[in-house]
Amino acid sequence: MKTQTDLILTAMKVIFWVVFIGLCIKTGALLISFIVSLAVNPEAASNLYLGLDLSELQNTNQWYYIHVASFIISISALKGYLAFLVLKIFSKIDFKKPFTEATSLLISKISHIALGIGVLAIIASRYNIWLIRSKESILDTQYYLDGGKEFLLLAGIIFIISLIFKKGIDLQTENELTV
């Protein structure tokens, strides 16, 4: 019989698979519709993904459209990569000896990716606000570009956890040498 912790970990693994697959689909759909809007049919910008309409921005200024769409696609792709790294932790971690160098590196990488997402989201959000204030755009894409502060907080928390993990590796190694 599985313990409650095993059930929770299994449920989290399933949830992260769903999140990862969903973010891959979202990123792929955004990327393909963005390429189609540039190369084949400019009207594709009117529905990039689930009603995201950047056609007005594309008609106003092609470069601003490319910038905003690139920010949205990049943030989505980095979120998918973050979910992928969490899935890698699930496959690498051994709860009998959890403090391994591979797990520590993955946790550290997750903190760096979360920091990157946070910084990119803040830059993208500020860029969007600048476009709105300069009357280049009246589009509200904040839903797709928001969350930078939350990802910075997440990056900080995960970085602290990675430092604790590194200390755990040192203690585990020292304990194995003394026994």
Automatic annotation (TrEMBL):
Keywords of the record: Membrane, Transmembrane, Transmembrane helix
Organism per entry: Bizionia arctica
The keyword Repeat is annotated on this UniProt entry: no
Xref: InterPro entries: DUF2975
This protein's record includes keyword Zinc-finger: no
Annotated protein name in UniProt: DUF2975 domain-containing protein
Domain of life: Bacteria
Annotated TM spans: 14-40, 64-90, 110-131, 151-169
